[in-house]
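Work Package 3 (structural annotation) set out to generate three-dimensional models for the target panel prioritized at the project kickoff. During this period the team completed the workflow that converts sequence records into discrete structure tokens, so that structures can be stored uniformly alongside our sequence database. As a representative example, we reproduce one entry of 186 residues exactly as it appears in the project archive.
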Amino acid sequence: MTDHSALVQLLAERSVKQGLFTLASGKQSRWYIDARLTTMSPEGLSLIGPLALGRLHQSGWKVDAIGGLTLGADPISYAIGYASAGTAKPLRAFTVRKEPKSHGTARQIEGPFREGDRVAVIEDVITTGGSALRAIEAVRAAKGVVSGVLALVDRDEGGRDAIEKDGTPVISLVTARDLLSSLSAH
């Protein structure tokens, strides 16, 4: 079994829930992906980090740092950063707060992000693209350059198109089709 197949299977078994759910976008769905049940597990982290780092290298994007809207992007960003530690160009992971801090530095981006960084915005699950677009806006406001968006899962529900309409390319490790195929196979 390849690492990609193992990740699809892990997500399908742990993170996909069937029923009737209201998504963050407000849309109703017959299935929900709680990616954190995979992204915060040792098995998930060990698969996601190297796979995502490989996809970033394949993309050709020049990237200095990775991060996205807390909480979904955090474990993925940290896994990628950790996987990059032994490479010629380690990637720094950061977190985008939903709102700027009201005290201390009052920053919206936390961690070793630097002005001028070329960034891959990380997303756990893309549905409408809203979370990724909020993270892109925050990175640009902090004078970062967004190279693209890397999603763990693309639900194939228009989010990729919304992000690409903004001029930002999108890649994903897994699609809804992958997960649904894995579910029907078991």
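The helical segments are 3-14, 36-39, 42-59, 74-84, 130-141, 159-165, 176-185.
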